[in-house]
Structures are given as structure tokens and as C-alpha cells.
Amino acid sequence: MKRTLLSWVGTLMLLLLGLTHHAQAQCSGTKLDECFDFNFKGAALNSSNGTVTISFGVRVTCSHDLSHASFELPSGAKALSATGPSGYENGTNNPFYSIKFNLGSGYKNGRTADFSYTVAAADYNRMTSLRAEAKASTTVGEVSFDLSGCKTSGGGGGGGNDGGGTGGGDCSSSHPRPMEGPSKPCPGEIVEYSVANEYTSYDWEVPRAKAGEPPLGWEIVSGQNSNKVKVRVGMKSGTMKVTVNHAECGTKVATMPVNPGKGIAVSISGGAAFCPGDIMVFKASGNKVNGRNNSHDMVWGVPAGWTIVSGQGTGTLIVRAGATAGNVSLMLASNPTKNKELCEAGEAVLALTLKPSCSPCAKPPLNVDAPEVVCASGSKIYTFSVDNRDPKGKVKYQFFLPDEFIKVSEGYGYVNIRVNNAKPDSTLFVTVVAVNGNNCGAEAVCLPVRVENCPTGPCTPPVVALVVPERICNIGDPVTFSVQNPQAGVTYEFNVPEGFIILEEGADYVTVLAALEEGQVGPAQVFRVIATNNCTSAIAERTVTVIECEPGNPLPVTLTRFVGVSRNGAVELAWNTASEKDNDRFEVERSTNGKDFVKVGQVKGNGNSTALVAYAYTDRTAASGTVYYRLRQVDFNNAFEYSKVISVNHTATGKAGAMSVFPNPVTDGSLSIRLPEVANGNAIIRLVDMNGKVVHSREVSNAGAEMGMELKNVRAGMYLLSVTVNGRSTTQRIMVR
């Protein structure tokens, strides 16, 4: 019995000795993940009751509050006791089997929360690793520590975490001696940060926008791998961090929150709702703080898939929207090379949301005539103008100029500028944005302009005068504006008001056609010419009044309305008459240049009438672009008169170029069919009712581009007209009344 008891005691001592050896391995250390420093302080054996107490410190290095911290438990076991700054869940499976401390606010920006929990020694012995996890806002960090061969911190020959033992260094803290350096450095400056020179290695990190992303302006200039590092200060607040190794205590980490300069209020203005492909403009406030222009640097950020058209580094950002929502962000900071008196920084974010309904929209055409080279300063005037701008004035144009370009004058689709103290041998950028009148569909171009140092000296400005008539007729004959006594060595740039179509432009003249909307007729219109020689510019302006000129013989009808619209790949025309006398028909004529018209269809007139009569015609063969229409009203005796000319900005589709039929609806039993090409041989025409029955069919030999068809015996209703020509069939719906 005595021998058995001694054997049992010996076995117990061996177990305790093994437990002590296991629990006394090097259990301290710090690991980093996201915005957390996980400091595993050690596992201490409590020999009096056979338990182990595990201790952690979690330092939050970002600006978000620590919401919870979780520490792994032995499988199937719970903590016997625990201490921490909050209550806890004992044995939860979220995020892994752990004890979870749920915190509130207060632990952020470098503050450390301390935790400890006690488990049975036998349960602890089963663990080979120990995981720790923490969360602040949406940021989650997780690390794992190797427990193989751990020592206790309660004694022994080596230096424990509580400083016990003989001959070890002071390992009671996981942090090096405090980091030294400015906590509020000025953006752009080079400053120094340091720790004690008593470690075997040093690894420095500068603030980043987010974990895993590159620093924004922060840069290590020199000193990496030493105890002192020189850093160029960036724009964004964050944390300076150094990881060091101690010969006896292992890895330690020192951090310091840094906030560049004095905080200033920054905001972003601009639309927040978008459709993919939209051109969006955002403007920053704060870049002219205290009236000091150009004293700050700016960095913009846009969502993934978005494209910056122009404006990075300036107060105005122009972007093409992508398909996904996100944020447009701005960081702004003073630049010591621009203004040494300022030391400030700020940031702003604007949330972007996808519009609930986004229909495909055609982009307006946008080609811009612009100078490639300008002088760094002087009195020369340069023009940026949209080529073939919308003659109806429905497209809105915006010009975004650099600060060095001073606006002299502007009009619809153009701007004139002078250059003020630009840097020679640099490149400036002008961005032009075009937006359809319904705000659906936009385009933008960014134009590089090279700046050069032009010679200076005596300069004789050009003399310029503009020869124009005082009054011109709307939708009348073309009118030429010319330079009086043009000079050799002088170039002339004409600025034409909205509503005028440029038919021809020469070196010293421009020929235009007035095609103003009804509300534009009457007010004075300004024509401008800019004369430029090799050193300077001069401007001449003249005003012109546009009037509605009465024709020699009035129309035998009173036309009260004539409009057109592009819809579904065709141009739909509509007009009304208040009275008619001997009106046989309206012939619809089309032009692509406003001068040369061809007949594209006709609509039967109402003869004599004193009531309001509405007419319509659909042109399915018009090509894309600006199309002009007029009506040729023909009497029974073949006398005729023309209506005013209207213009339509037309977008054709694949159906454009198909056959057209007129009139539609058919009111007098006669139908004309116009083909997009001359028929080579026979054409087969079929009229099919909505039940699929062929009610009329005929074959036309030697068919041309236009054919007639008599439908006097066809009952009123909806039909399908099918024409087969040159091996291709085309079908169109018609109405017979």
C-alpha cells in the first residue's frame, strides 16, 4: 500500500512537472492585423488549484471603437472565470469557439483593452494554438499564437512576463519605449520619428488609407531598419507604427496616432444619383481657405469602374460614371512649397447611388476645335468651340478651364480666353462637356494645351471691323458676314450665335442661314470676330436683328403649327391648318444642309376648310444628324408655296433606310411607296389583313424607287403591306380609312 501510494505521488509530481514545463514556454508576443495589435501576455499556472490564467491586451490603432474581442477556449470547455472592461459570452461559437467580450465605446486611437480568463490546466494542455479576434466598426482582425512548449510566467530561470526569474530583460510590456515625434505634423513636411536604440531590428510603417492600400502622400525618406526614420507627411490621418525585436523578449510594437495639420472643413458638391455612362461634375470647397488660392493639394477617389475624365489634383473633378455605386472622396492638405503659413488638412466623402430607372440614351456628338499651343501670357485671344453644335440649341455645353485661362467672352458652344501667367513648357487641360437637353446622354472630352514662352517686344494690334446687315430674315436667304479690309498676317475667328447654321466659312468671311426658334426672333443677336496677329488680338462685335419676313404670296392655307421629332429611328412630322382654300396636297421635302431639298413624301390636303385640321407624316429613311424639313403646299391648279423650315436632331436605327409609305393613314384610296434603292427588275406588293388573308397583290415590272398603289376598294382597317424587291422583303403596317 505504501509503495503504491509513493508511486501515485511520483506520477502526480511528474505530471505537474510536465505541466509546468509545458505552460512555461515563451507565450508572450504581439501580432498585428487590420487596426489591432494583439498582445498575448502569457499563460500563468495557478499550481494551488490546477488552473491556467490567459492574459491579452488588444490595442486599437484606428479611429473606430472596439465592439468586441474573442479569445479561443479549449474544445468543449468554458472559462472558470474572466475579467475585462465589459461583460462576456462564455462558450460562444461566433466567430469560433471562444469567450467573447462585448464592448461599447472608448477603445480607439491607440487605447488598449486588457482581458484575462482562467481555464483548467488539463484543458489548456490540450490546446496547440490560440486564436484571438477583434472587431471595430466593419474592420475585423484575427491572429493565431503557437502554444507548443509554453512556459509559465510564475518563475523559473528565464525572465518571465512579470519580470520574475533571474537574468532576463524587462518583458512586462509588449510595447517598446514610447515613440517620439510630432503627432500633428504639417502635410508635405519631412519629420522624424524614433524609438530607443536597444532592439535588434526595426520595421517602420506609415499611415495608409485602408489596410492593404498604399500610403496617400506618406513616404519613408530614410532610416528604415534603424531606430530613427525620416518621413514625408501625407494628407490622411492614421498611425505611425514600428515593429521591433528584443533579444530576450521577442517582438514588440510601438504606435502613434498622427493627424496632419489643423483640421479644416471640406465638402463635395455635385449630383449623387447617376446612370452608367453619365458625365458627372464634382466641386470641392476648402481649396481657397482664407482666400489663399492654390495653396492646397487635392487627391480625389472614385468607385471601381468609374473613369476620371479630368480634374485630379484640382477643385473640379469630371468623371464618367461606372455601373456600381460607391463614394467619391476628397483629401485636401496644405502644401508648404505653395504657402509656408498654412498647416491644415481635411477630407470629405459623397455617397453615390444608382438611379432607379436608367434608359439607354444617345450621346450628343462632341468635336471641339481648340488651339494646341498657347503663349504663357499676353493679350492673344484663343477660342475653344464645338464643331457642328446643335442648331436647335437643345444640347448644353460647358467649358471647364484651368485657373491660368481668363475668360474674355463666351456664347453657345464656344468660349474665348486669354492666358495669365501660365508656366512655360507645361501642359494645361480644358474639359468640354455636352449634355442632351433632357439630361439623358452626355459626352466629355479633355483637351491638352501646351504652354510655351512667346517672345515679347513692341506689338501693333490688328485693326478689325465687321460688315453685317442690320436685319436678316429668319429661314430666308443665306447671309455673309465679312471682315472689312482684311490684313495680311492676321487670322480671323468668327463667333456665331445660337440658331445660325454655318453654310460656308473662309479666311475672312462666314456665310450663315438664320434658323431661329419662334421665341428667339426679335432680340438682337451678337456676331463677333477675333483678329489675331503674331503678338496680340483684337475683337469686333456687331448686333443683328432677325425678323420673320412675309413671303410675296401668302400660303392659301393658314399653317398654325409645324413640328418634328425623332422617335424610334424615324422622324415624325406634324402640322395643323386653321383654314384652307383649294388645297390639293402637302409635299414633304427634306434637306441635310438647309439649302438643298428633295421630296420624300406627300399628304393629301383637305381642299377648302375653315376648321382646324391636323396632318402627320413619318419619314423612315432619314439618316442620323440634323435634318431640315419644309412643306410644299400645292393648289388644285398646281400653284405652290413653301412653309418655314424646321430642323430635327435625328438618331436613326437599323430600320432607317427601309421603305416609306405615304400617306399613312390612307384617306383617298391612293398609296405611294418609296423604296430605299431602285428596284432591279420586278417588285411584288402584297396587302395582308390582320387575319393573314391577302386582300391585294400585284407584281410591278421595271419598278423604280417610287411606286403607286390603288386601294379604293379596300375596306377600312389595319393592314400589313409587304414589298419584295431585289430579293429582300420589307413589311410595314398601314391604316386605311
**Could you give the count of β-strands?**
55
Measured by DSSP, the beta-strand proportion falls in over 45%
Give the class-level CATH name of the largest domain: Mainly Beta
- Residues in helices, as a percent range: under 10%
Please describe the biggest sheet, giving its number of strands, its sense, and whether it closes into a barrel. 7 strands, antiparallel
Please name the CATH topology of the largest domain.
Immunoglobulin-like
Superfamily (CATH H level) name of the largest domain: Mu homology domain, subdomain B
Helix segment tally: 2
What this model shows, in words?
It comes from Rufibacter glacialis. Residues 661-736 form the Secretion system C-terminal sorting domain. This protein is mainly beta and 737 residues long. It is 4% helix and 50% strand. The protein has 7 domains: 30-146, Immunoglobulin-like, CATH 2.60.40; 189-260, Immunoglobulin-like, CATH 2.60.40; 263-354, Immunoglobulins (Immunoglobulin-like); 368-452, Sandwich (Immunoglobulin-like); 465-548, Immunoglobulin-like; 558-650, Sandwich (Immunoglobulin-like), CATH 2.60.40; 660-736, Immunoglobulin-like (Sandwich). Strands 42, 43, 44, 45, 46, 47 and 48 form a 7-stranded antiparallel β-sheet that branches. The longest helix has 21 residues, at 2-22. The radius of gyration is 41 Å and the shape is elongated. The model is unreliable at 1-26, 153-169, 287-293 and 551-555 (pLDDT under 50).
